[in-house]
């Protein structure tokens, strides 16, 4: 619906269609996974690195299944009750890969709460809001590797064998989640901040929304929209007033954190990425990576975020996409070749012959190539 995560249509884009897909949903079903088991498996990843387990109160008071007797807001969230003891998650967990990743995402928030619980209340927060969104996702970057899925019995041994074609498929699936998200993660608050600034008036809410969706994401609505509709309001974070730029920030810095922890763990060799590529790194059971992450989390918001970032990134104090580019390097190389082979043009065209070739931000350029020439712009822009 939002085109924020394209991995559910990955079958359309897999570079090597003859190679098996790495879906864990069948294994979750066969092994009768429950919500509790997903949460226990997630917790075990954190503790395997020397991080804290979830306290007893967490297990007693969290809601991890959809209640049958009443309606609740099912959007997953994590809560710090600010008494240094009570931390909870609320999630209507489904037995899917997507929710397995969300479990880690939410538990990352709670791990952060636990690590900074003894700081003064004023400092019990993320170094910046993007840090908070990134913790669980950093863990997930290891969890979803085929290598790790084999370790925890959700994929068969054969899926863990080194195979550059399976790797490309895996990277495409990751790119459809992580790279395709970036324009969406960016535009939500561009729209919202322009509303707050008075640059978007209430008579233009929906058309300005679709203008951004067209220009930044390159998607169009499936039927004609008007100001009778209020499409952004259907996004949870807009209706619930949850800031969104933190996710955009998170999707970039999580790769910087992943690179830093993987390097410390000896799971990534920046000098020899072919032998030890970043996308294949799994920091499971690695105490060195755990200590480093802990050191960063324990600072809460007691220092400016660049200082906190520098704790794990060997002095790098800036948010940048170099780690993201390193992670996807093999896919970028393949896309460059494949696009050349098919003579694909970069970007997409807007209606009224407005060409929009600069729409691919440099960090996205390789990705946009895949979706070119398929859009027929029928939406009336403002
Ligand atoms: N709290 C998560 C997101 O909004 C929940 C989800 O991914 O469903 O950040
Ligand atoms: N959890 C956020 C969302 O659902 C970002 O992935 O939009
Ligand atoms: Zn979150």
Automatic annotation (TrEMBL):
CDD domains xref list: M2_ACE (cd06461)
The record's comment on protein family reads:
Belongs to the peptidase M2 family.
- Name any cofactors this protein relies on: Zn(2+)
User: A Gene Ontology biological process annotation?
Assistant: proteolysis
Q: Which catalytic residues are annotated? A: 106, 237
Under InterPro entries, the record lists: Peptidase_M2
| Lineage top rank: taxon | Eukaryota
Q: What keywords are assigned to this protein?
A: Carboxypeptidase, Disulfide bond, Glycoprotein, Hydrolase, Metal-binding, Metalloprotease, Protease, Signal, Zinc
Q: Where does Zn(2+) 2 bind?
A: 105, 109, 133
Q: Which residues are glycosylated?
A: 60
| Cofactor comment text | Binds 1 zinc ion per subunit.
Q: What are the disulphide bonds in this sequence?
A: 74-92, 262-281
Q: EC top class, in one word?
A: hydrolase
- GO CC annotations on file: plasma membrane
Q: Which residues form a coiled coil?
A: none
One of the entry's Gene Ontology molecular-function terms is: metal ion binding
User: Which EC numbers characterise this protein's activity in its record?
Assistant: 3.4.-.-
- Ranges that cross the membrane: none
Summarize where Zn(2+) 1 binds, as residue positions. Answer: 105, 109, 133
Its protein name is: Angiotensin-converting enzyme
